[in-house]
Amino acid sequence: MSVAVSPVVFGPTPLSLESVIALAERRAESALDADPQWRARIDRGAAVVDGLLDREGQIYGITTGYGDSWVTAIPLSQVEALPRQLYTFHGCGLGRFLEPEAARAVLVARLQSLCQGVSGVRFTLLERLHACLQEDLLPRIPEEGSVGASGDLTPLSYVAAMLCGEREVLWRGEVRTAAEAHAELGWEPLTLRPKEALALMNGTAVMTVLACQAFGRAEYLLKLATRITALNVAALRGNPNHFEARLFAAKPHPGQSRVAAWLRADLELENLPPRQRLQDRYSLRCAPHVLGVLADSLGWLRGFIETELNSANDNPLIDPEAGDVMHGGHFYGGHIAFAMDSLKTLTANVADLLDRQLALLVDTRYNHGLPSNLSGAPAERAMINHGFKAVQIGASAWAAEALKGTMPASVFSRSTECHNQDKVSMGTIAARDALRVLELTEQVTAAALLAGLQGVHLRGDPLPAPLDAMVATLREDFAPVVEDRALDGELRLCLEQIRARHWALYG
Question: What is the pLDDT along the chain (507 residues), one digit of tens a residue?
Fold first, then answer.
């Protein structure tokens, strides 16, 4: 579902989570704020750093070593060389590389943080970061190597190195050297000034953009899981009165009530006769209560993520007005870690819910007259056809792995870096975990969607208008299963559509 997005302006105005996603997916243009006062404020921060150097002031990471090496004084003759040392010795990341969308978003987040004007960098640095974004010159950032302590030091070293014409980049669809890309663009690689490497690296950009991506996927998953639940209520001839407005007025969690309202609209509750069955099993009856926890959590999750996105999260910070330095710990990713640990649990519960609904659909003991395993085969072929049997097994495996992945990362703090980083956030690991749980939950969702589609086909009852429209759209790509066929291709297509937010759901 392609949505037009207004141009994103980097400057003193906060960015939304949606702006990050839109830029990451190349659905929006961007520009730097033209306000001369704001631009001058950025450069004043860099001038403060230069002034302190002229006065031989002591500034962490500028006239001292890094981390526990802050007690090591750096002679002024070597201060200019220190930034390159920082990104060089952090070039030890491993694991898979971030996808292009995530790497793009990292540039967005780091740029937005520097736009706060307290990082002591030149406006030239902001211009070059923005130029990389516009030209789609992307650093190759390894996923692993950050404990979320001094932010994402190792992953972000690949951003700093790229700006200086070093290491590998993704450029015009190919892996190239940064030096080659700079030459083709006619750019002179930057030489980072004192504080600039630290400002680029000592922050939470990687964990924050992964959190932005996770939030966007979870938000859509909530709506799709609701629509699937409505399909399954129809396929199982469930009791839609479980979602009655009066009922939810008695327990008025706003998100829970919103999910129930979506189900009422999907099932056209007002137009349906009462069902004979008094109470459905919990995976149908309590769906608003399961999905509602995610719905009611989205507000505070957004708050945590967007506050982090629009913060100055490096160290030290430079006050361009007072002309002094503030040493602190804003690089600590505790809020992102907690948000992502929470999101893991919330989304894994969605996987479990849909897996349980699928288990009802395929089992003749509970599906109220549907064929075993949702097989659409005629009677003479029924004994050798197995329909969705293996799909249900797969969904059970994916749900189990999602549930296993909910162990919180934030409590696994490690003391590292000679006990300077003796309490760390694990924010980046938590965010990566959340994305993995989301991936597995989306796989369960794809299976549940195709099974629900098969269920309403086999039931053959007239459908309420919203569900009928959804089924018609799905039938463009997914035919009923009559004779057994391999469904992996269709499941993968369904996954692609889920991740592209293909279906418009609930406005």
Answer: 555 578 999 999 999 999 999 999 999 999 999 999 999 999 999 999 888 877 766 777 777 766 666 656 777 777 788 889 889 989 999 999 999 999 999 999 999 999 999 999 999 999 999 999 999 999 999 999 999 887 899 999 999 999 999 999 999 999 999 999 999 999 999 999 989 999 999 999 999 999 999 999 999 999 999 999 999 999 999 999 999 999 999 999 999 999 999 999 999 976 666 666 789 999 999 999 999 999 999 999 999 999 999 999 998 999 999 988 888 889 999 999 999 999 999 999 999 999 999 999 999 999 999 999 999 999 999 999 999 999 999 999 999 999 999 999 999 888 777 777 777 888 999 999 999 999 999 999 999 999 999 999 999 999 999 999 999 999 999 999 999 999 999 999 999 999 999 999 997
| Token code pair at residue 236 | 């199982």
Closest by CA to 207, choosing from 72, 311, 74, is 311
**Beta-ladder partners of 97:** 142
Strands 8-10 and 30-32: parallel
Q: Amino acid letter at 68?
A: D
Name the H helices within 164-320: 178-185, 196-201, 205-235, 245-249, 254-267, 282-285, 287-309
Q: How far apart are CA 229 and CA 232, in angstroms?
A: 5
97, two tokens: 């590389």
β-bridge partners, 138: 170
Which residues lie closer than 8 Å to 102 by C-beta, 6 or more apart?
Answer: 24, 141, 209, 210, 213
- Cα gap 111→128, rounded to integer Å: 10
Bridge partners of 139, per DSSP, are: 169
Spatial neighbors of 242 by CB under 8 A, at least 6 apart, are: 279, 280, 284, 285
Nearest to 105, CA basis, from 146, 133, 145, 144: 133
Q: Which long-range contacts (CB under 8 A, 24 or more apart) does 405-414 make?
A: 405/344, 405/348, 405/433, 405/436, 405/437, 405/440, 406/344, 406/345, 406/348, 406/437, 408/341, 408/344, 409/337, 409/340, 409/341, 409/433, 410/334, 410/337, 410/338, 410/341, 414/147
For residue 129, give the H/E element and its range.
helix 123-135
The Cα 145–Cα 391 span in angstroms is: 36
- Candidates 55, 23, 44; CA nearest to 133 is 23
- Domains of the chain listed by start with CATH number: 8-203 (1.10.275.10), 210-499 (1.20.200.10)
Give the active site residues.
60
